[in-house]
Amino acid sequence: GNSVTQMEGPVTLSEEAFLTINCTYTATGYPSLFWYVQYPGEGLQLLLKATKADDKGSNKGFEATYRKETTSFHLEKGSVQVSDSAVYFCALSDPDNDMRFGAGTRLTVKP
Amino acid sequence: DSGVTQTPKHLITATGQRVTLRCSPRSGDLSVYWYQQSLDQGLQFLIQYYNGEERAKGNILERFSAQQFPDLHSELNLSSLELGDSALYFCASSRSDLYEQYFGPGTRLTVT
To answer: Which of B31, B32, B36, B43 to mutate to test the interface with A (most CBs of A within 10 A)?
Structure first.
């Protein structure tokens, strides 16, 4: 079945540092890929998505590229802020299966 | 604000009891999903309904059940509660299986 593996946290960075959170997937079909973010005390919010190979999703300075050859969808941001502190979830869905989420990566950004 | 509402926000109850969590999806969304989030198990998919019919089942215990009503709101029923059922329960909705899900703020259940 489909699955998502993302890098374990927690990740702690200083403000303005570069962020990468790795995500790889296993899927039998052609899934859509998503990054969700969960701020403290809140539900998950869609951060960005990509629906086909080589698509780049971007939002709020975050971006991720759908790489079919490496089955990856790594999240990157060039300069993180304290307000980016949250838990980040990679996810995939396809027409034949329910959405699968990674285990989540907790990011803490220190001033 | 995702447009998905969940009630109640917090629920404290005793072991052995039964509770009902309610979810109203975004306007126009036909699919409703339920998830359980606990510290040790992460985000677990429980069940999905599409336009009133059960579409997919995940790691849902037999003590748990759900339904989606004609107005598309959904309820998750948890019975014979155990301490280990303490968690955040999220509802999400989407237009269909192919689209992104929008999450509600969650219900925090504490079983004492």
So the answer is: B43
